[in-house]
Amino acid sequence: PSSTSTVLFDQSWLNLSKAKLNQLITSQLQADPTDSTCLLLTALQLPYGDSRVRALQQVVAAILQHGPGDWLYQHLHHIYCYLGWAIWEGRPRSPKSTETQDT
């Protein structure tokens, strides 16, 4: 999430207005709730966890629904990798074991 924010909103990168971008995304999703670009931009701004995983799954579903006509279709393999990474980062972490193993 922080790297996405840096790329989108930092002055040395795209320097987008967060408020304007969110307004554009919202209005576009109202017009087309399966707009994969808007869904992806929304998903990438979410913190790691179940909500990000669900949002990325929604992106994949929208791209597959649209098929090769969706411009993100050619990048689907990258989105699947990012989904896997989101699942990995969002997994529950167990505390390190303090028990010692007998060898």
What does this entry look like structurally?
By secondary structure, this protein is mostly helical. Helices cover 61% and strands 0% of the residues. It contains five helices and no strands. The chain has helices spanning 2-9, 18-31, 36-44, 50-66, 76-90. The longest helix is centred in the middle third of the chain and has 17 residues, at 50-66. The protein starts with a helix and ends in a 13-residue tail after the last helix. The model has no long low-confidence stretch (mean pLDDT 87).
Keywords:
mainly alpha; 103 residues
Short description:
By secondary structure, the chain is mostly helical. The protein is built from 5 helices and no strands.
Count of DSSP H/I helices: 5
Main sheet properties: none
**CA(first)-CA(last) distance:** 42 Å
Number of strands: 0
Topology, please?
Elements: H1 2-9, H2 18-31, H3 36-44, H4 50-66, H5 76-90
